[in-house]
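Changelog-adjacent note: as of this version, every example in the card shows the full chain rather than a window. The one below runs 197 residues end to end.
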Amino acid sequence: MSFTNGKFGLLTIRKEISPDIFYCDCACGNELHVWRSLLANDVQKDCGMCRATGRKSSGGLAGHVRYYKRKDGRPSQKHSGEYNSYMAMKQRCYHEKYDAYPRYGGRGIRVCKRWMLPRGEGFRNFIADMGIRLRGLTLDRKDPQGHYEPTNCRWSDREVQANNQRRWLYPDGVPKLECYRAMEQRIESEFEEQHPY
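Full-length structure tokens:
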């Protein structure tokens, strides 16, 4: 997939601003900056306010999910890399039938309340805290014994994640997991310190 002067739906890439953000023109004349993951996963195909299609874009969840109809008429969705990481994090912690659940939710690993708020607010908070997911990176917990929370998560490459495992960090035994209530109280006090008003 070429990102140099490439065309994605009604968007045309004009230049690369950073390795994962592009300056694009829309067919309707609007100009915007678009994340690589939104283009690569076919999530964003117009500016969102485009009149060329005769309707507004059907993007959801802060523009990271696009709803569309397949050729056979069935509804479907496309997701950004950030949204895929967010949903995988929630599945690992809360869906008992998910294959990785025993290593996460089964051990007591949880997602902080801020990232679990309903109606897309949790995902918007996740994006505000984590930022853009650069190419080749995935979601990683700094402390593999810690919960999914802003101070314990980062975007990391495979090498960092391979070295950041319990078996390498704690060869003499795994330390006790922080209880969920203590984590929420700590996050709340840290947030209040950073935002006093």
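Structural remarks: The first strand starts at residue 7 and ends at 8.
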